[in-house]
Amino acid sequence: MTRVLVAEKIGDKGVELLREAGFDVEVGIGWEAGELERRIGEFDGILIRSATKLTAELIAKAGKLRAVGRAGVGIDNVDVAAATRRGIVVANAPQSNVITAAEHTMALLLAMARNVPQAHASLVEGRWDRSKFSGVELHEKTLGILGFGRIGQLVAARARGFGMHVLAFDAFVAEERFRELGVERADSSDAVYAEADFITL
Question: 127, 151 in Cβ contact below 8 A?
Fold first, then answer.
C-alpha cells in the first residue's frame, strides 16, 4: 500500500480523502526534531505546508518518495531541482488561498480606511470617540495594486465592487487582461505611488 506522510496540519477532510483513496496515511504533526529525517525513507508521498523544509539532503534520504504535495502556493521550501533529479513530482495548490488572501486584503483595507483598530482600542479603554475614528469611504478612491497576478486581480474585482477606481502595475500581465477587468494599467510603480489613495502589493 502507498504510504503518505501528512507532515503539517491540514483539514481533517483532506486526511480523510487520502484514506478514502486507498492511501496508508500517517499524520506526523508534532514529531520531535530529527524524526522526519529518520523516517522519510518509509513514505511514497509527503504532504507539507510552509514550515517543513525539504532540502536536497533530506530528499536524498527519501528512497521511496515519489511525490511531494505542497498544500499552498509557494514551493520555495522544497529543493525542486533535487526532487526532479530523483524523479519525485512536486505539486502545489496555486488556487488554494487566493480568495482568502484577496478577502483578507479587503478586510485590512476597510480596517485602515475606517480606523477600526484605533476605534476598537479606544472602546476597550472605555471611550466612545465616534467622530474621531470615522475614517474615509472607499467609494471613488483609487486603489493601487503592485503585482497583478491571481490575487491582485481578485482584489481589483472586489475593490471595484466598492466603487473604487483601480490602477495596477505589472510588467508581465497583458494589457488586454487589464481591460477585461476594468483596471487602468500604470506604466510604472511610480505612477501608482503618485495616484493611489491606498496601495496593496
Answer: no
- CATH code of the domain occupying 98-200: 3.40.50.720
Q: What is the pLDDT of residues 42-97, one digit of tens each?
A: 999 999 999 999 999 999 999 999 999 999 888 999 999 999 999 999 999 877 78
What residues form DSSP beta bridges with 199? 144
Which ranges constitute the DSSP H helices of the chain?
12-20, 35-39, 56-60, 80-85, 98-113, 116-124, 150-161, 175-180, 189-195
**Residues 86-127 pLDDT 10s:** 999 999 987 778 899 999 999 999 999 999 999 999 999 999
Specify the DSSP element, H or E, that contains 3: strand 3-6
What is the number of other CB atoms lying within 10 angstroms of the CB of residue 56?
12
Superfamily grouping for domain 3-92: NAD(P)-binding Rossmann-like Domain (3.40.50.720)
